[in-house]
Amino acid sequence: MTQERNDADVAFIRALAELLNENDLTELNVKREYGESDSLNVRVSRMTAPPPAPAPTYAPPPAAPAQTAPVSEAPAVERTSGDPAEHPGAVTSPMVGTAYLSPEPGADAFITVGAQVAEGQTLLIIEAMKTMNHIPAPRAGTVKRILVTDGSAVEYGAPLVIVE
C-alpha cells in the first residue's frame, strides 16, 4: 500500500512538472489531502534563464548606430532594434493595462506613423480596471513609430510611441 501511494505521488509530481512546463509557469504549490491528518505538500518550481538573455540583447544595439535601424523600420510595429524605452522621444505607459489605438472599435486610429501631433493630443487609450485613460503627447512632433498594437497588453514604463 505504501509503494502504491508512493508511485501515485511520483506520478502526481511528474504531472505537476508537465503542467508547469506546458503553461510556462515558474512555480506551483499544491496540497493533496489523503485524510484528516495525512497530506502531501508539493512545491514544484523552476529557475528561468531570462536574466542572462537580456544582456546580450541590449548589448549589441549601443555598438550599432541606433539611428539607422529605427529609420529603416519606421512603419514597423515591433521592438527588434535598440531599446525604444531609451529613445528621447519615447512615450511610455504610465500604467499596466490594455492599449487601444482608436476611441472605439472600427473608428479611425488616434495617430498614424508620420502624423503630426500637438502637445496634449491623445495618442492612444490604455484601459486599466475598466477605466479608459487617454495618453497625451508630451510634446508636439511627428509620430516616428507606434510600438504597440491595438488591444495589446502593456506594462508600466513600456514604450508605446516614438514622437520626435
Characterise this structure.
It comes from Rhabdonatronobacter sediminivivens. Residues 88-164 form the Lipoyl-binding domain. InterPro entries: AcCoA_biotinCC, Biotin_BS, Biotin_Carboxyl_Carrier/Decarb, Biotin_lipoyl, Single_hybrid_motif. Keywords: Biotin, Fatty acid biosynthesis, Fatty acid metabolism, Lipid biosynthesis, Lipid metabolism. This is Biotin carboxyl carrier protein of acetyl-CoA carboxylase. This protein is of the alpha+beta class. The protein has 2 domains: 2-45, no CATH class; 72-163, RNA polymerase II/Efflux pump adaptor protein, barrel-sandwich hybrid domain (OB fold (Dihydrolipoamide Acetyltransferase, E2P)). Helix content is 21%, strand content 30%. It is built from 4 helices and 10 strands. It has helices at residues 2-22, 54-58, 60-63, 68-72; strands at 27-33, 39-45, 90-92, 97-100, 116-117, 122-128, 131-136, 141-146, 153-154, 159-163. The strands form 3 sheets. The chain has a 4-stranded antiparallel beta sheet, with no helix packed on it. Strands 7-6-4-9 form a 4-stranded antiparallel beta sheet, with no helix packed on it. The longest helix has 21 residues, at 2-22. It is elongated. The termini are far apart. Mean pLDDT is 76; it is low at 53-60 and 64-80.
